[in-house]
Amino acid sequence: MVKNKLLFALLLVVAFAIVGAGLSLVFSRFIKFSDTGSVETVTPEKIVSQQGHSAKPDFAFNPPAPQDAPTDIKDAVLLGYNILTNTRKYAAKYVGNTLTCGNCHFKGGMTEGGKNGGLSLVGVGAAYPKFRKRQNYAVDLVSRTNDCFQRSMNGSPLPADSREMMAIVTYYQWISKGVPIYADVPWLGVKQLKSAYKPDAVKGKQLFMQKCSMCHGANGQGTLAAPPLWGKDSFNDGAGMAKLDNFSAFTHLNMPLGNPDLSIEDALNVALFVTTEPRPHFAEKTGQGS
Ligand code: HEC
Ligand code: HEC
Questions:
Q1: Which CATH number does 201-275 carry?
Q2: How confident is the model at residue 52 (pLDDT cuts 50, 70, 90)?
Q3: Whose CA is nearest to atom 27 of ligand 1?
């Protein structure tokens, strides 16, 4: 009797499993993809409300040094760091201007951003793949990095499996150690200035001559002391830095280098002047090198 009951129970379980699998197969066909590519399914409220909106993150800014990487990835991490800090030497054929990644991502992106920190890259290894408006799709770090090669560096994209790209991505991953996947990383990205001020390019030019030209050159072409801000050797018109919002926010926090003292209004004035000066036009170059 007991044996029969057990057998019956077992049969029931198996039957439910088969019906369940069948049903999920049928229902999976009804999951629709909308135009933006999002999947329309029931959203688990609890998980969403817990996601990364806490004021204080439960992890600290503490990137490990490139030279402390484990032996098997150390060469890649160090090459990645070298590319970020001396792009024209270590990834020469993909660069089309006289900039280096570190001119905007100070110290190869190893900083905490904020004042005098430039644009941090610590934690990008945990923040990607990520949705980007420009592509209207989630992009990974290879594609995001090539965006900076093609626009900020006015160059051409690296093959995903090239030694250089592998090194860059390994470097990102190493310096992101300890940052939880998809955490809200407070030091990443450009913090946009909040202002309704309408900038004035004439004031911007005066400010440029007083506050920037001694390092960046009177024609924005760069000097031994600082990289170019416009002209043929600068970032092109498709670059993030060519946008008024990004340029003004970066300048407000970082320039003049070491002593960023421009008001929000003046940062906007100088940004309008510089971003409307002539610079290379973004034209997608494909293939290797340029
Ligand atoms: C004391 C010299 C100095 C002054 C003055 C200065 N900068 Fe810079 N700037 C630099 C240096 C050096 C870098 C590159 C930093 C690095 O590589 O770590 C830089 C980088 C930049 C960058 C990013 C790289 C590029 O060339 O596009 C921008 C944008 C910029 N400066 C804007 C300005 C603006 C606007 C002013 C005036 C308000 C200004 N800077 C004043 C030295 C200076
Ligand atoms: C002229 C300035 C400039 C140069 C040079 C530059 N970048 Fe960027 N980079 C930016 C700006 C601006 C952003 C946008 C930050 C944001 O999304 O808020 C950015 C974003 C990035 C991001 C995504 C960061 C994030 O927070 O999502 C990566 C990765 C990156 N750059 C890598 C590179 C690499 C590698 C190089 C050199 C090959 C480089 N960049 C050169 C300005 C620059």
A1: 1.10.760.10
A2: very low
A3: 229
